[in-house]
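Suppose a colleague, Dr. K., hands you the sequence of a protein chain of 279 amino acids and asks what its three-dimensional shape might be. Before reaching for any lab equipment, you can write down a predicted structure in token form. Begin with the sequence itself:
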Amino acid sequence: MEKNESVAIGTPYDDVFRTMITDSDSLAISLINLMFGLNISKDAKLVRYQNEVYLKENKKRITDSQIGVQGSDVYYHMECESTARDENILLRLYEYDSTIAHDHALIEDNVLKVTFPKTGILYLRDSSSTLDVLKMEIKAPDSTESLVLDIPTVKISKYSIDEIFEKELWFLLPFFIFNYEKRLKRSDATVEKEILEKLVFIKKQLESSDSRGKIDTYSRILIEQMTEKVTKALAIKNDKLTKGVDDIMGGKVLEYEAKTILKTGINQGIEQGINQGIE
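The predicted structure, expressed as tokens, is then:
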């Protein structure tokens, strides 16, 4: 999604997407692997680049992510879309990607070498017209050849909770409630109960995955509290569901528990380092 200098355009879902991408390498890697069909180790170290893109007339937009893996010259650009179909998305992606390519360009032997990032979209909502793969074609002058870039899409609607846990697609969990959005709008009498049961299942499965070493505690708590934030945002007018979410997932969102754990660990490490230096 985009923002500019004068108007901030965004949703809680964008914030959750960026928080997970920024604060947890393992969650970001789970999305990269799913989106691009890769098998990057969850222990790999990521490098996050500036995501402010300046376009003509000094207009600034914020990309949802610009990530690299240490030891690799491949860059990943992933966007979160809450609109099922946006006619301008490809143009925006080209603007972002060409700027990213420019920022990482090299001149070797008097040749400018420009590499576009691997780009993909996470669709929170989709329709029958939402494509599995978008395409960007870049034509060269005086040539019949052109460069075609595939932009894969991931649709939340295609994944069940069971499949997410089976394949460890952790990044998708906070957005599962979008699969119930239409029923929420229809005031389906059973939808609140079903969602709350799913939240209980998610929390128990995450705790089990944590205890078995499938996911680290920091990422588990981050998922829980981002799930709470998304669910409450989508069901903002449903008091019964909002209260149920608090009872099940209850936690702080802004200074969430996972970040507190991380800060505590860092402080303890610094203190131990100082003590060892004194000794």
